[in-house]
Structures are given as C-alpha cells and as structure tokens.
Amino acid sequence: MSQRSFRLSTAVVAGAVVALFGAVVPAQAVDAAQPSTSSTSSASSTRVAPSDRILQPHSNVRSGPARSYRIVANTGSEWGSGVAQCYVRGEYVSSGGWGSNEWYLLNVDFGGVQYYEVWAWAGNVVVGGLPHC
C-alpha cells in the first residue's frame, strides 16, 4: 500500500485563504494542488502524521474546531487518508460512550477530493501523539 502525503506549500496557500476569507478550498480550486506519491514530505515529522486511514467513514470535516463551524464535507462510506498536523482543545463532543474536546487539523483526501486545513473531532480521527497547534 503506497503512502500518500500532501505538498505543504499547497496546504499553506489553502490555510492563508481560510485565514483571510474564512472559506475552505477543495484542491481542485488551487492550481498546484496535486497529491504527492513520495513518502517524504517537506514538513517536519514532528508536526505531521501521515496515514492511509486517518478519518473514519461517516465523519464530518469542518471549517473550525467545533460543531458550530460549517461542515465542509462528509466522508460517506469510505475512509479518509491524509495527514493530521496538530490538535486544539475545542467543543466537547460525546458519541458512542466516548467524549473528547480535542479537534485535529487535517489535510485529507476522500471521495476523489482533497481538503486542506479542515478540522475533525478526535472521535473520528485515527491518530495520536501530535502537538498542540
């Protein structure tokens, strides 16, 4: 199974768009936004956790770290792959007998679309040990 990582420069551009305009841009809207099939990344290995299965099926990705933020997309019946960069403490969510207030900043790919600088609740993300944003 090949490991996919995303070009950091594209994530930085998308992050700047989010910071300036409050909108999340799917990769198709950014000219240079193509996944890299290289197993190396220009990002520090302490800030990025790459995975082929990082986001569970039927998970929402949002424009910010709380349920009040806009839902950007839902993974549907497939797993999302990509990288988790860091986490923040946000809104507490309880589901399936488990609860957390951790939200992860992700660059994630599912349904043939890549989303940069989106947020997902920790209960849907399969990763740990990342630094605080």
Describe this structure in words.
There is one protein chain. With 133 residues, the protein is mostly beta strands. Helices cover 11% and strands 39% of the residues. It is built from one helix and six strands. The protein has one helix spanning 8-21, and strands spanning 49-55, 60-62, 71-74, 80-95, 98-110, 113-121. The protein is globular, with a radius of gyration of 14 Å. It starts with 7 loop residues before the first helix and ends in a 12-residue tail after the last strand. The relative contact order is 0.24.
- Molecular shape: globular
Please write the string of helix (H) and strand (E) elements. Answer: HEEEEEE
- Helix content range of the residues, please? 10-25%
Report Rg.
14 Å
Instruction: Name the average pLDDT.
Output: 72
Strand content: 35-45%
> Order of strands side by side in the largest beta sheet?
1-4-5-6
Are there runs of 5+ residues with pLDDT below 50, and where? Answer: 1-47
